[in-house]
């Protein structure tokens, strides 16, 4: 059995051990001093092998196998230690042979769109004659909660590589990007060099401009969309604004035939009318605690914010006047309906600053604000959320008063998770009970829609992800019917 008490009696072994500790300490000090140098797993694997060989050489030193051959077993670990030291030095010379071996550029959009996939591009160019293995770590804003975000690849001499990835911000505000960290290693793989692109950037996250542009294209596309897109509504009757006289085509309203023009030209001609312009369209957002409920990372208020921007943009493109208002226990920001050049930007900046509140909505205060601030008959989209018939009945008299003066559209949300649960298969009595409660909850939402329509109030019950599409469809429908 090995006696540890005799270990330090051998002076040669003690000297070797002290030298080994000094070498390890020197490497640690060098590692601390050179913050841009990191030891790889390959280095530690070789170092662990050397330690095992040092220990084994002590046990095998006095065996007949090595004594008869005149070979000292400790030579092998010392040779490997020297070899590791040479490799480390050579690898360091390779990695630091160029002061700036890479050219790094990060391309960000001017602003981020809330709830959309926003692309980010990082371009890395090798301006040296060395082949590098790269591990790229981009310091994302803490709001994304991505701790292991990295890319690994090889980069040949004078080669350029572009990394493209997407981020989906769920909260409005400023997002700060840190450094682009690149870890280089050579073909030896003993050391890694850290190369930083020190260019932090701060980007604001605004309501979804991407969604706004997409719905603008759909709303003005002359091709009929399918049920998954914006529907083009057939005009029922027409407004009083004459646009032009055109040839009759099948499907035109025969009541619009211009008989004088028909007699002069010898073919059927019809009067074409356009939608009335300069009508007021207001979006009112409830920012009380009932709108803080999250769906797919976004709160209900954020869905309403995105839809408000979409509707305002389309209304302005239709030559209407767009405005907005927010409320909870107090009246928040208000933008009076107008169609001036910077109206959309004013609405965008106002929506960017809005935050949810933790108190209940005050509809009495909303009614007084509508009477005092909104002059003339207007189309009002009210984005709110009712979870029960009792919640609706408390505010229904006030909504009826608003609807008497304006055209009110109440938009509230369907709980898609409860609907999915109500459609699942059940196997136990407890599951049947829970599913019955879920179906009752869904039925009560449908009753709220019926109750609103019973009093002549337009209502939209929608999934959060379909809010913008259904709101735009309703706006186009009401405008085509001449109800505004």
Summarize the structure.
By secondary structure, this protein is α/β, with parallel strands linked by helices. The chain contains 13 helices and 21 strands. The relative contact order is 0.09.
Describe the structure.
The structure is a single chain. This protein is of the alpha/beta class and 484 residues long. The protein folds into 4 domains: 4-95, no CATH class; 102-206, Immunoglobulin-like; 240-274, no CATH class; 280-480, von Willebrand factor, type A domain (Rossmann fold, 3-Layer(aba) Sandwich), CATH 3.40.50. Helices cover 40% and strands 25% of the residues. The protein contains 13 helices and 21 strands. It has helices at residues 11-33, 41-60, 64-69, 75-95, 209-219, 259-265, 300-317, 343-353, 363-373, 389-405, 416-423, 429-454, 467-480, and strands at 37-39, 102-107, 112-113, 118-126, 132-138, 150-155, 160-167, 173-177, 180-185, 191-197, 201-206, 241-247, 269-274, 280-286, 294-295, 298-299, 321-327, 331-338, 378-383, 407-413, 458-462. A 6-stranded mixed β-sheet has the order 18-17-14-19-20-21, with helices on both faces. α2 (41-60) runs antiparallel to α4 and α11 (416-423) crosses α12. The longest helix has 26 residues, at 429-454. The chain is elongated, with a radius of gyration of 36 Å. 27% of the residues are buried. The model is unreliable at 222-227 and 233-237 (pLDDT under 50).
